[in-house]
Amino acid sequence: MASAFLSSILSKTSQLLGSVHRWAVSTSSSSDPRSSILKDLKRLERTLKRIQTVLHDAEEREIREEAIKLWLKELKEVAYDAEDVLDEYHYEELRAQVEARASRKRKRVEGDDEEEVSSSLSTIEVSIPDGMGDRIREIRERFDEISEDRERLRLREEDGERRVFGALRPPPTSHMVDESSIYGREHDKQKVIDLLFSEGMGSGISVIPIVGKGGLGKTTIAQLVYNDSKVKERFDLTGWVCISDDFDVPRLTKAIIESLTKISCDLTPLSTLQVTLKENVKGKRVLLVLDDVWNEQQSLWESLRIPFLGAETVRIIVTCRNDSVAEIMQTVHPYHPGYLSEDDSWSLFEHYAFAGRESEEQSRLADIGKQIVEKCSGLPLAVKTMGSLLRHEIDEDSWMDVLQSDLWELDKDNETLASLRLSYNRMPPHLKPCFIYCSMFPKDYVFDRDVLVRLWMAQGYIPPQGRKTMEDIGDECFNDLLRRSFFDSFNYVGHSRFKMHDMIHDLAKLIAGNECYTIVDNWLPCFPDGVRHLYIQGEEELVKSLCSQNLRALRTLLVSARFGSIYRMIKEVTQFSLLLLRTECLRTLTFVWKSEDELPDSISNLKHLRCLHITSKFIKKLPGSVCLLYHLQTLILECDALAELPSGTGNLINLRYFRLQTHCIKRLPESVCQLRSLQTLDLHWCNKLKGIMSGIGILTNAQILCLPAGIKKLTNLQRLCGRYEVQGGIGVLKDLVNLQGDLCISGLRNLVSIEDAKDVGLKYKHKLKRLYLFWDANCEHDWYYDGLDLKAFLEENKDVPAYEKREEAVLEYLQPPANLKKLLINGYGGSIFPEWVGNPLSFASLQEIHIIGCQSVWSLPLFIHDSLGKLDASISKSMIERVSISCCQQLKYIAGLHNLYSLKELKISVCPRLLILSEEGLPSKLQKLHIEECQRLTSLPGMQTLTSLQALIIKNCPQLRFLSEEGLPTNLQDLHIEKCQRLISLRGMQNLTSLELLTIINCPQLRLLSEERLPTNLQDLHIKECQQLISLRGMQNLTSLELLTIINCPQLLLLAEEGLPSKLESLHIEECQQLTSLSGMQNLTSLRELTIQNCPKLCIHVEDQLSSMPHHVDIIDCPGLVNWCEIQKINCIQVVSGNKLTISNSWEKIMHGFHDLTSTEHRFDESSTSRVALLQPRSHLFFSNSWESFIKRPQAKLEELTIWSCMHILPLEGLPELTSLQRLIIKDCPGVRLLRDEVLPSMLKSLVLDSCENLRCLQLVQQNRYALEELQIVNCPEIVMVQGLDRLFFPKFLTIERCPQLLLSQDDWRPFIHPCAEIAGELEMKFNPPHSEETENKETIDDGTQEKQVLNCVMIERPNSVVSSRFDAADDCNMGQFLQLGLPSGCRSQCPVQNNAEPLWVDNNAVSPMFDDAADCNMGQFLQLGLPSEGVVSQIGNSNTMGSDRSIFRQGACGNDVLRDGRQ
Q1: What does the alpha-carbon distance between residue 1009 and residue 957 come to, in Å, rounded to a whole number?
Q2: Is 530 in contact with 515 (CB distance < 8 Å)?
Q3: Please, what's the largest Cα pairwise distance for the chain?
Q4: Of 370-374, 594-598, 819-823, 1320-1324, where does mean pLDDT reach its minimum?
Q5: pLDDT at residue number 163
Q6: C-alpha angle with apex 617: 611 to 622, nearest 5 degrees?
Q7: CA 948 – CA 467 distance, rounded (Å)
Q8: Which residue from 312, 587, 605, 314 is spatially nearest to 433, judged by alpha carbons?
Q9: CB atoms within 10 A of CB 1346
Q10: Are strands 697-698 and 692-693 parallel, antiparallel or unpaired?
Q11: What's the pLDDT score for residue 32?
């Protein structure tokens, strides 16, 4: 709707007109230009008021009359121009104020005694910008033309009351509903029924509101409840009335009479109608549904409910869209339905879109349909509308058009957008521009409430309301939109964040048109005219391309970086300067600055700028021209390198929010204390800031923030964010009278004077919401707070006495304000609490209290009014919802818990002396009770009265024998009991009809969960470490059970004799050594996860098979289930023995490879007639249905892995995590086609590939594989490539056999063959060609002996009289090993073996003189050669005879070589 912003703009224009009128009326001369401007302004004001009276009618007619739309568009354009002109004058006013203040300061410095001039605008001369009079006249004339057109368009003047066009009224609803077309609302129906009959309702009138956005299904849920037969049996009269927007009490009373009595009523006077209704309901039980209520007037509701006061019981179900409507009617908390699940949404869509279609046609359109359903985001009305829209469309193109459209055409038949549009039409005028502004952001954008409010403020959308601040009014606007369901809230790290539903976002985009625009790509599409608010998420080039566009009308420019590239936005100063020249009307500017240059001074041209957010890691200094942005309200500088702020920062007299994030700045300018409008100062990340604070002293810790002197002058400061360290006192808080939000004070034990705590006056800081008090300055905690963190530390060489009375006095003085919402007290050393703790007047608004580590306290009073513990009737009921008490070692009693009527959550932990929770009992509205480490607690009396209790958690209470003598409350949904060593039974479990989750852990005396049976609604059952538990009765009756976990229950004999419940989705049984049988597996049709581990006696009948394979199966160390697993084809088998693991898809292969498994790896239970095989402690047998468990199961110490006969592709990507793996064998695995180097562990020593028929390539090139010693490739017929054999890590043992396709070039081999290498098959001819007899004679040592041995040597071709010239190449060899050749005995006698460490040299004519070339050989070890008897040994061991002929052939590079005859 084109007029969405108009009301806000016209309102602001009227305000600025008043400002200009102030100086215009003071002129006396008719010839003064100001007189002419005044006349134009007065005429303009009258024209605007006339136009405003017809806006309502124009808004209603805009959607269906193009002429009205054009008229509103022109009106809006002129209004924007008018605001700009008047805003420029306001800028001149602000500049005059700043200059006047500077002038007064100079006079004070110069000692001028002249009386100070008042800063009132009436005494400050404001210059009129050139041409402003002409621009105002032009705007006035344009408005006159527009005003004349309103008569031609027959726009009707109204008094301002909203009139809703008839066609937009929703159709009346009734209680009739076709339940076959409703999906996913059974849970909601039951929740409302539970509210309807909850025990706390009592008699009288009770109202149950169902609140949610339009189209969510509120009416549907009410219809389901209303038509439930069991519900109707409880009432004498039932009625349904559709209220809609007209809350006319006489009309509604008449309609209620007719609906309840089913008889027509002709009465009209209200009094007569009320008497008739009262007589009809007197003494009866009445159920009434009021559907689609919009009324927000309490008086109208009170008038409607009066006749029901005489009834016995009245239950009224109300459906509405606003919490504000519910608040004036409700007697219980509203019920907020959720969105439909993905499955339910699809079922609903199918019902409407595919009814009557053939299956073939349905399957063709299903994929597109599911994407459309996803776009509807679970909104039932949207899903229904889309399904109905596409019901008669048979071609895919039509479906694709719907899918690809950002917005579905709005008309009377589109119930979804029509219903959302109705909510928008009824929105107050000041909320409309706030809502439409949000359409500038992309879908699924996460909104921060405070940030959005500041953006609204910058655009002037927040209307003034008396003395309220703009921030408070903005919060109210946001909360109003939230109540109207235009935002969805969620929790993020303890803070509320918000999103806008896609359908609502589409509605906002429809109304905004091109005014709000979003660019989230790296390219700039055709830029539309008239864009005023622009959000960009892209890269640097995209921002540059904007400079060529028409941006004169732009008022918001948010440039956001993509994640991970935050500093890649605006880089060139020239481009940015050009951008600034084209965007002079900007109110909001957010950008990321990459350049190392300073920002240009031209930024001061943005006179209208209200919000500036700069992010950069390069900016070191801001230009002084920034201080000329007098309109600036918000300044955020996330500039890590920023070292100083301009001295004129104090000139930003409108600045309300200042956040500074830098690691370099050391001091703030003194002028910061002149920012009298400042509401929030956030210096949280300025960890180098130093300075002097008045009255506190020098802050020496550079890592803790320091405030400038004169901080007390900022009297309007509401938020001070950051961590500050002070010496000995916290007096700075005295001056921050308007402090709000969060306040944390730590180190209270270090206060020098307790009077300092008194002077702070926390009691009078009424805007504080959360207060955290820590007595220890160094207390580590994980509490997160957004506000001021003040830490007191001791001054050097000073000591503060610590005793109870002193700490009690400090806490007495730190009484918080009555408006406080949350209080935390940590480490308090007193033995008693002051009187304000527990005083209803002090805790009037408190919602949450935490007492932690108060070691000396023995009693804790909560909400006690007097010494008798009685509450005064005039005191309002407690609002406390959460209480947490922990680590209070001496605490024995907690008083007043029963008075906490609103208490929802109570947690008590580590209070070993606590005897009883509360003698008076606990409040009935308690929803969650958590008790932990209360060693003396013996029982929990009165539990049955906690009718709202949903979760009960009890941990480590060793004296607890019974939970409750009377039984537990029937509404309990979650019961968790852990480490209660004396707990022997759980009584009355069968009565817990709402119980969904039951967890029992480490209760060794517990033998039976229930003497009768477990509740049938149980969904999750977890039992661990219950050593005496012998059976679980009635498992087959748990028809809702989905998860069952039983771990370490060694005495459990029987689990389910009649079978397990069919809805079971997850079954986990572990360490149940006596469990013998498990029946009913064939009934588990929903089972998704199955784990059975270490149940050695467990057997399952082979015919009891699962109907379908679960997603995940693990059977571990259960030898009795081997046959069952084989038949079930759970065939991912693993055998672990020590540090060896074998996995396979074939049990036969496993048994073949481990033929001694039953004798070595297993032992037999001789006492058992079935001779069940039990695994030894270090041997484990795993069955699984996938190899995912192999990846997830830790294998840190695994050294050998065998993968054998695995039919499917293995998860080899997990192998690098096996850092200890040394040997890998892959055999009979057809799924392995490529074995990449990166999947192999780096320290692998042995790799064997055997019979992998589809393996084509092995890569060994990516890593240094010096550890690899053995490589075997056998019977791999398809392998064509082995990469890496030419590397230096050539293995010591190489086997390549029966690989006919493998082609290796000579470059793949080193110029030697390893002595242990076996090369067989077709490659043998290539690398070991047959030798002739002559060659054989030449390459052997002809000495007639049979033994020859070469250890770690090179290849020897002629070791005798014909020594090969190959020795010539031994120029760099390393003779690091001992070489021995067996020679004739005669030679041995002449050349005995030498055992000393000296080298033995032999002078023999048979040794080639080419040894001379081995000049760099390292003959570091003993060499012995046996020579023929004819040779003469000239010298042995004489180093002087070692000449050029002493060189010896070298050792091979791999360290081992072989003789050519194949012998080593």
Answers
A1: 18
A2: yes
A3: 148
A4: 1320-1324
A5: 39
A6: 50
A7: 42
A8: 587
A9: 7
A10: antiparallel
A11: 61
